[in-house]
Amino acid sequence: MTPAARVQAAIECLDQAVAAARTGGAAADTIVQRYFTTRRYAGSKDRRAVRDLVFDVIRSIGTVPESGRAALIGHARANAPEVLELFTGTADTAGHAPALLVEGEPEARPSLAPGWQLDMLRTRFGKGTDKVVAALLDRAPLDLRVNTLMANRDELLIELPDLAPTALSPTGLRAPTGLNIETLPAFHAGKIEVQDEGSQLAALAVGALPGENIIDLCAGAGGKTLALAAAMANEGRLVAADTDRGRLSAMPQRLARAGVTITDIRMLNPRKEWDALKDLAGLADRVLIDAPCSGTGTWRRNPEARWRLTAERLGKLEGEQDRLLSLAAQLVKIGGSLTYVVCSLLPGEGEGRINAFLLKHGGFRPQEFSIPGMAAPAPTLVLSPAEQGCDGFFIARLERVC
Ligand SMILES: C[S@@+](CC[C@H](N)C(=O)[O-])C[C@H]1O[C@@H](n2cnc3c(N)ncnc32)[C@H](O)[C@@H]1O
């Protein structure tokens, strides 16, 4: 592909990302991948260049733009004016070079994020908000988790000398840029999994122990399920539940590769979750709710989450988080704990939900927890890329006392 054709490809992907933001469609990463499945002529360098440009544009345009072209022009004008010289085509040469610039055509304005989202972050981070947002809009490193059922970190550091230990997670490794994990025998042997250090810390916050009865209520494809199973030394019972059949279906293969045999996978029907969980009522030592959320803590990977989030959608997410907390409360045994996690830094999805829960559920109280090497024990923990260098998370632990 010529440089100009790459720019036109980025515009077309961005058009789809804009439409997806309005309709709840696919993530930008998926859009770029799909774009190239029907364009076999594009090589790996073309794909990488187009993907990088798409993500650079999304990072610099904080609010949903009128079109992909408007977004790209706005980004280029502010950060890479030489790209505008590639707008040499005509309106009917789509696919080759972007059409010539027209005087007064729409142009998106660079910004960090929608003002109302920044205001909410400001209530948590105050004067530090700009630093946090800048870190959220940086590129994320590739982190791996050592599967302690099959390996230990020191041995892997000898086997894979390009990797470095992460600062906080005792099982974390940070990979050099561009590493393709699928090329590593250690991955196929189940010794390592891709997992951001923040997710590793969130799983550690559960405090899982061998032999316990644990429920991972929003298990998805099992990222944290695998980490919990390793903390349990593959002893006890681990129920992994989710409403998304597609995500759950990826789990058995991952469990098998990691040597995990204690998991009971349960498919839940949305709003009828209890039907598939009621046999576990009041029995769990620990329940993890890794709740669906706005994803503001993962802007490094999904910067288009800023375009997708509306006040209405946030309200719906908070309602769902309340519902999942109440559902989980019924599963915890007396003396057991409930760990609530969101990869969001908006206080409404964090402290807001926990305070609302505690008002309604007198049998629960905040429970202090600590992660070795981190801050003093506390009932909540906020992780941010500006402070800990990982994705942003809010984590809270509650104990059922009666
Ligand atoms: C943040 S993701 C979980 C990621 C996963 N725990 C991991 O570590 O990879 C949130 C998950 O909640 C699931 N979910 C949404 N509504 C749910 C519900 N009512 N009951 C259970 N899971 C739900 C979604 O399908 C999604 O997989």
From TrEMBL:
Protein name, per record: rRNA cytosine-C5-methylase
Source organism, top-level taxon: Bacteria
Keyword field: Methyltransferase, RNA-binding, S-adenosyl-L-methionine, Transferase
Domain SAM-dependent MTase RsmB/NOP-type: 125-401
Family: Belongs to the class I-like SAM-binding methyltransferase superfamily. RsmB/NOP family.
GO biological process: RNA methylation
Stored InterPro entries: MeTrfase_RsmB-F_NOP2_cat, MeTrfase_RsmB-F_NOP2_dom, RCMT, RsmB-like_ferredoxin, SAM-dependent_MTases_sf
Residues annotated as catalytic: C343
Binding site for S-adenosyl-L-methionine: D242, D290
Tagged with keyword Nucleotide-binding: no
Signal peptide per UniProt: none
One GO MF term attached to the UniProt entry: RNA binding
